[in-house]
Each structure stands twice: as structure tokens, then as C-alpha cells.
Amino acid sequence: MSDLAWSDAQLKEVAATYGTPCYVYRQDLLEQFADAWINALGDRGTVCYAVKANSNLAVLQILARRGCGFDIVSEGELHRVIAAGGSPKKIVFSGVGKSFDAIRFALEQQIKCFNVESLRELDHINSIAESMGVIAPVSLRVNPNVDAKTHPYISTGLKENKFGIAADQVIDAYQHASSLTSLSVIGIDCHIGSQITEAEPFMDALEKVLAWVEELESLGITLQHIDLGGGLGVRYDNETPPQPAEIIARVLARLANRTEQLIFEPGRSITANAGVLLSQVLLTKHNGEHNFAIIDAAMNDLARPSLYQSWQRIQVIDPPEDATPLHWDIVGPICETGDFIAKQRPLCLAEQSLLVIHSAGAYGFSMASNYNSRRRAAEIILSDRCMHLARARESYTSLYRDEYLFEG
Ligand code: LLP
């Protein structure tokens, strides 16, 4: 088990070498957080890392080598996993609307299964598979109507959400799927939300899923796997989410008399605390009662605070000794009041201070944009042996490389 603390000296070296803002991930922590799932699950199933949380190729490569499969939601993610050396045999394809091209490409690659969320999509996959002369393995994503007790934007298992097949349509959907000749119905799937900090919502969802599994069995539809999705929360501040081992032990105990394989789709719990965002203070400014530290990272680099009012720990490396701590609003240079990384943080900082924004390895770079024509940050992986540039900072020309001047 490696030390969760980050070395200031190493982070300073990264900033000096690659500049800021930049994302830094640690190989040892990525492996440790992946192992927590893989070891607890053993040979009872597959850990399909949710690529959306952090889709950097080198990160995917590290996780693939560790034994992870992948949960993808787009053709782009499928391309990434293949480029990173992930096995299509361990890929599940989630998402409420898959393009026909993506379905065709996934069938060509012979992925493990499609997680399907509607009757229409069953028909689409069936006809594409039929036209290719193949059988598509499918699992149905059901909506168990369970409250994950998390932020409304990242809660997905309530009946008012767009996700999954509604409880009263599940049996009909399975019967429909079984009647389609180019589908092989192999699983059941649910994902109830993200940053879930208790075990109960997972167990409640499992109960609902098991009731369906048993009802389907009585109708002659037997399944090979149960996929409980992702969603396990992490510690950003003082949350105390259960460990993967605890969730898995409880699920396995409940499934003691059953033989289905299990799939989990963790994203955040593998990458969030394996990464930080490094940023430098450009200048400080005092408006009325507010002390602003304007930093070189912004909402385009890390959208979570603006989008979900999320809290991420901020540490100042080598804080100035003579400064009195003030309550700082840590903001980016983007022309939006919503462009903030943190508010009212008691910190000692000065211009040029190097800030470490913790727990940024999940939904950080993967949600970054070029808003305000800002180049997306560099990504660096720290290993025992080296600092590896996993993605270079974008160049200015790459910002408009795919644009064409009007020649009228
Ligand atoms: N499986 C499915 C079908 C999902 O929709 C998601 C996440 C996951 C697995 C992985 O969930 P995780 O283990 O990472 O919680 N951008 C938001 C989080 C959105 C999550 C979307 N779905 C954030 O920054 O908090």
C-alpha cells in the first residue's frame, strides 16, 4: 500500500519542467485503487473502469495492464481503449443513445456486451447485428428507482431520470429482447449515481435487480452476469465512503447461493485521488470584502466546482511565511462569474504560489474544454522511475487546426 501523500518536491519539479496548469497522476495510486476492486472481486467478475472519469491513454494502459476491463459510452472511448491495449472482450458499452456507427464498430471489435436502456435501442442493435451476420450480446440497464443520495446532476437511478428501463417495463423489455434473433441476452445492469458515500443504495439496488433476475428465471430467461455500475464515492473533504472491499463483500454474501458473474463500473474511485491539478497564482486582487487569487487554471480545466459546487482541497506549496492567512476566492481568468475553483478558503498565498488542487484525477481533464481559446493542460504521470508526459499541453495552432477560413 503506497503513501497517499504527495511529495511537494516532485510536484515542484513537474511544474518547473512542464509548466502550469497541469494534471499529475500517480501510477502507484492508480494501481492501488484499481487493485482494491480487482482483488476484492477475484474470479467472481470483471472490473470495467468507467473511461469517462479519466480517459488519458497512458492511464487506460496502466489500468488495462492491471487487469481492468472498461465501461465505455462512445465510439471515441472505444478507440481510446483499443489504442491503450485494452481487451474488447472486457468492454461493456453503456449510454442512453449509441450512434449506429458506434454500434457497428463495437460489434466488429466483439466487445463483451451492450448495456441497453430502451426497447428502441434493442431493435437498432438487433438490425445492425443482423445486417452484419453476427449476434450482439446485450444486458438491459434497469432503473431501480433508488435514491443514491448524491448531487441531483449525478443521480441516475430515480424513475424521473432519463436512464434505464422503467421498473414496470423491465420484464416486457427482456421478453422483447429474447424474441430478437440477432441478440443474445446475457445480463442485467444498473447504475444509480455517482459520489455515493454509503453502502445502502447499492444494496437496495441489488435487491431490486435480484427480484427481476428471479422473475426472469421463472420465465426461462437466465442471465450470466449482474452489473451494478459504478458510483462509489471518494473522500474530497471529510466524507467516509465505504471501501470497494466492503461493498463487494456485502454483495457476494447476498449472492452466496447464485452463480452469476459480477461487473462493476467504477470510475471516480479509481482515478479521483490518484490525480491533482497544479496551478500557479497569477495575481491577487481585493474587491470590497473579497480576496481573489486569480490562478492560471480555470473552469475550462476543472469544471466540477462551477458545475456542481464541488469542494476540492487546495494546498499551497511553500506558503509565504510572512503572509497572514486570508479567506481567498480561488478563481480562473475566464470571463464568467461562475469561473471559480474554490471559495472562501483560509490560505496563506501570494503571487506565483504553486497550488495543488487535490482529488482532481476523475472528471478533471476528461471534462476540460477550450473555452476562451485556452489550451488544454498537460497531463503527467509520476512513477517510481520517471515523470512521464502523458499528454502535452495543447499548442495554439491545435486550437484551430480543424477550422477553415472562409474563401468567399
Ligand atoms: N457507469 C455508468 C453507466 C455511468 O454513467 C458512470 C458515471 C459510471 C459508471 C462511473 O461512475 P463513478 O464510479 O465515476 O461514479 N462528472 C460528474 C460525474 C458524472 C458521472 C457520470 N456517470 C462529476 O464530476 O462528479
Give the topology:
Layout: H1 8-18, E1 22-26, H2 27-41, E2 45-50, H3 57-66, E3 69-72, H4 75-83, E4 91-93, H5 100-109, E5 113-116, H6 119-132, E6 136-141, H7 170-179, E7 183-189, H8 200-218, E8 225-227, H9 244-254, E9 261-264, H10 268-271, E10 275-287, E11 290-295, H11 304-308, E12 314-317, E13 326-331, E14 340-347, E15 354-357, E16 378-382, E17 387-391, H12 396-399
Helix pairs in contact: 2-3, 2-9, 5-6
The structure holds ligand LLP.
Low-pLDDT residue spans = none
Number of helices: 12
The CATH topology annotation of the largest domain reads as TIM Barrel
Largest sheet: 9 strands, mixed
Chain oligomer state: single chain
Number of domains: 2
Helix share bin: 25-40%
The helix/strand order is HEHEHEHEHEHEHEHEHEHEEHEEEEEEH
Number of strands: 17
User: Strand share of the residues?
Assistant: 15-25%
| Average pLDDT | 95
The CATH architecture of the largest domain can be named as: Alpha-Beta Barrel
CATH superfamily of the largest domain: Alanine racemase
**What's the N-to-C terminus distance?**
63 Å
Shape: globular
CATH top level class name of the largest domain: Alpha Beta
Structural class of the helix and strand makeup? alpha/beta
Q: Round the Cα radius of gyration to an integer and report it.
A: 23 Å
Named once each, the bound ligands are:
ligand LLP
